[in-house]
Amino acid sequence: MIGARVFCITTTALRRSPIFFFPKIPTRPVFRLSPATRPIVAMSTTSKNQEELDSIFKQKRVVRSTVRKSLKAMDPSLRTQQDEAIQKTVLEAPWFKSCKGLCAYISCKSLNEVDTSKILSEILQHPDSNTQKKLYVPWVEDKNSNMRMLHISHMEDLVANSMNILEPAPVDAQGNDREDVLQADEPIDLFILPGLAFDRCGRRLGRGGGYYDTFLKRYQDRAKEKGWRYPLMVALSYSPQILEDGSIPVTPNDVLIDALVTPSGVVPITPRATESM
Ligand SMILES: Nc1nc2c(c(=O)[nH]1)N(C=O)[C@@H](CNc1ccc(C(=O)N[C@@H](CCC(=O)O)C(=O)O)cc1)CN2
Ligand SMILES: Nc1ncnc2c1ncn2[C@@H]1O[C@H](COP(=O)(O)OP(=O)(O)OP(=O)(O)O)[C@@H](O)[C@H]1O
C-alpha cells in the first residue's frame, strides 16, 4: 500500500507532465530487464526529434520481444492457474460488480493474452436482469490506429478478423449499425485492457498498433467534453508481464492505467483506483 501511494504521486506527475519522464522509483521485485534492454532516459517533448522517438520505439520493440518470449515459455498449468485467479479477482471486485457499461477485450490464445472468457460470459449470461452490463468490444477499423468499441449482446456476434482476434461486424445480422461507444450517450465505467507489459506505476506496453492509446485519448476527450467521470482503466497481467518500475519506455501518447489485476490480486495505482478498490 505504501508502494501504491508512491506510485500515485509519480503517476499523477507523469499524467500531467508534457515531458518524457522516467521517474526514479523504488525497485520492486518481479521481472528484471537486462541493462541492455533498459530504456534510455528521455528529455523534454519539445526537444525530442525523430531520432529520439525512434530510439524509444526501438526500446519498446526490445521489451516486447523479451516479454513475448517469457509468455511463450510459461508453463501451461501456471497459465491456467493465473487465468483463473485473475478472472476470479475481477468477477468478485466491487468495481466490476457495480459497473454498468464496460469495454473489454476478447482474449486471443495465440497472443498469450490473459483469458477474459469467464468475465465475458458472466456479463452476457443475464440479458434481462437488472444487473445487466452493457458490453463493448474492440473492432479494428484500419491500420492507422483507428479502433472502435462496439456493443455486443452475444458471443455469436463475433467473427475472427485478419489478426485471428474475434470481433463484431460493425453491422449486425439484421443489417443495423452496432452502437459505438464514441457515439453513445452513456459513459463507460470500466475498461478492461490487454497489453504485453505493465509496471506498477501505470505504464502499459501494447502490441505496437497504437489502437488503445488512440482510442483512450479520444474517449477521455469525449468524457471531458460531456462532463463524464473518467472510467477506471484496469489491465490484466500474468506475472511475467509485470516489469520493474520504470522499465517500460513511454512517449506522451501512452495512456496510463489506473490499476493492474495480477494473479495475486489488484494493484491500485492512481487515487481513483485506491478510492474504488
Ligand atoms: N484481444 C485483443 N484485441 C485487440 C487488441 C489486443 O491487443 N488484444 N488490440 C490492441 O491494440 C487491437 C488490435 N491490435 C493488434 C495489434 C497487433 C496484433 C498482433 O498480432 N501483434 C503481433 C506482432 C505483429 C507484428 O509485430 O507484426 C504480436 O503481438 O505477437 C494483434 C492485435 C484491438 N483488438
Ligand atoms: N519511430 C516512430 N516514430 C513515430 N511514431 C511511431 C514510430 N514507431 C511507431 N510509431 C507509431 O506509434 C504507434 C504505436 O505506439 P506504441 O508503440 O506506443 O503502441 P502500443 O502502446 O503498443 O499500442 P496500443 O495503444 O494499441 O496498446 C503506432 O501508431 C505507430 O505507427
Characterise the protein shown here.
Its EC number is 6.3.3.2. The chain has a single domain, classed as 3-Layer(aba) Sandwich (Rossmann fold). It has 7 helices and 11 strands. Helices cover 32% and strands 16% of the residues. It has helices at 2-16, 50-72, 76-92, 94-97, 117-124, 211-226, 271-276, and strands at 101-104, 134-140, 147-152, 158-160, 166-168, 190-193, 197-198, 204-205, 232-236, 259-262, 265-268. With 277 residues, the protein is α/β, with parallel strands linked by helices. Strands 3-2-1-6-9-10-11 form a 7-stranded mixed beta sheet. The structure holds ligand FFO and adenosine-5'-triphosphate. Ligand FFO is lined by residues 68, 105-108, 111, 113, 138, 140, 147, 163, 165, 194, 206-209, 211-212.
Provide the domain count.
Answer: 1
Order of helices and strands: HHHHEHEEEEEEEHEEEH
Mean pLDDT value: 85
| Structural class based on helices, strands and sheet pairing | alpha/beta
CATH-assigned fold name: Rossmann fold
The neighbouring-strand order within the major sheet is: 3-2-1-6-9-10-11
List the total number of helices: 7
Quick summary:
The chain has helices spanning 2-16, 50-72, 76-92, 94-97, 117-124, 211-226, 271-276; strands at 101-104, 134-140, 147-152, 158-160, 166-168, 190-193, 197-198, 204-205, 232-236, 259-262, 265-268.
Show the helix and strand layout.
Layout: H1 2-16, H2 50-72, H3 76-92, H4 94-97, E1 101-104, H5 117-124, E2 134-140, E3 147-152, E4 158-160, E5 166-168, E6 190-193, E7 197-198, E8 204-205, H6 211-226, E9 232-236, E10 259-262, E11 265-268, H7 271-276
Parallel strand pairs: 1-2, 1-6, 6-9, 9-10
Antiparallel strand pairs: 2-3, 4-5, 7-8, 10-11
The structure holds the ligand Nc1nc2c(c(=O)[nH]1)N(C=O)[C@@H](CNc1ccc(C(=O)N[C@@H](CCC(=O)O)C(=O)O)cc1)CN2 and adenosine-5'-triphosphate (ATP).
